[in-house]
Amino acid sequence: MSSQTSRRENKISPLTNIVLNIGFILLSLACVLPVILVIIVSVTHNDSLLNRGYSFLPEKLSWIAYESLFKDYSTIFGAYGVSIGVTVVGTILSVIFMALYAYPISRADYPFRGIFTFFLFFTMLFNGGIVSKYIVFTQTIGLLDSYAALILPLLIIPFNVIIMRTFFQTTIHPALIESARIDGGGELLIFIRIVLPLSLPVMATMALLSTIVYWNDWFNALLFIRTEEKYPLQYLMMRVLNDVQFMRSNVQLAAQNPQLMKDLPNESLQMAMAVVGMGPILLVYPFFQKYFVKGLTVGAVKG
């Protein structure tokens, strides 16, 4: 009797079901349509953009934006390789180091917990600035024009460490660690064999966030990289966009080559860069989605 009553209480009416489905369809379209519009604008001719603005049905198509980007395809593919390598290595090291930082400060019996937590919060509020960062990485450590200069500045993100610490505090019960210690396990063994397997959701979540940060980073390349072969994709595309904008703003060049200035992409080039840059993230995200949702919800207060 109780199961039938519960089944009747949990049943959704047909009207409610229709409204929910329409709402989810609209939300899905709100997420997908901007991506489709970016792709369409990236292959829209500059004249069509000037006459009609952004449109899902452009008057004239043009591949000049992609031709401008891939004119020197070896450079683009080389930048892709640099970005992929830095992102993969940086994400793995970042997750490992953040977990090694977050786990001790989540333990109530760690004597230096307060000191390292203070350092963590302090770096969220204050930093030394760009000049001191540049001096440390180039003169003190000597990482000018090296791949390490693209990895180390983003290795530990304080906010992500706080999320991991909260996860460890709410998910890893102290009794579990105590029982493992009674069985003869050391701290490193407990961390590797017990804590990490139970922390896959938050580890995957932090891996996704670190992947996005490393993939979208261009500012560290601007500061530390001097060799073109070491440019990551985002920085290389930013240079291409700056070159195009400089050419469009050059009055003398516009007077000499009016047709070139007319055909030279601007808006479409920006969208083409967005399409090229977001491709790998769209491929990676589905593999992390399940853990990402679980990592954000696990440890929440339950009634």
TrEMBL record:
The keyword Ribosomal protein does not apply. It is a multi-pass membrane protein. GO terms for biological process: transmembrane transport. Keywords: Cell membrane, Membrane, Transmembrane, Transmembrane helix, Transport. SUPFAM superfamilies: MetI-like. The chain crosses the membrane at residues 20-43, 77-103, 115-135, 147-168, 188-215, 269-288. GO terms for cellular component: plasma membrane. Its main location: membrane. Residues 80-288 form the ABC transmembrane type-1 domain. Coiled coil: none annotated. InterPro entries: MetI-like, MetI-like_sf. It is found in: Cell membrane. Belongs to the binding-protein-dependent transport system permease family. This is Putative aldouronate transport system permease protein. It comes from Paenibacillus endophyticus. The lineage of its organism: Bacteria, Bacillati, Bacillota, Bacilli, Bacillales.
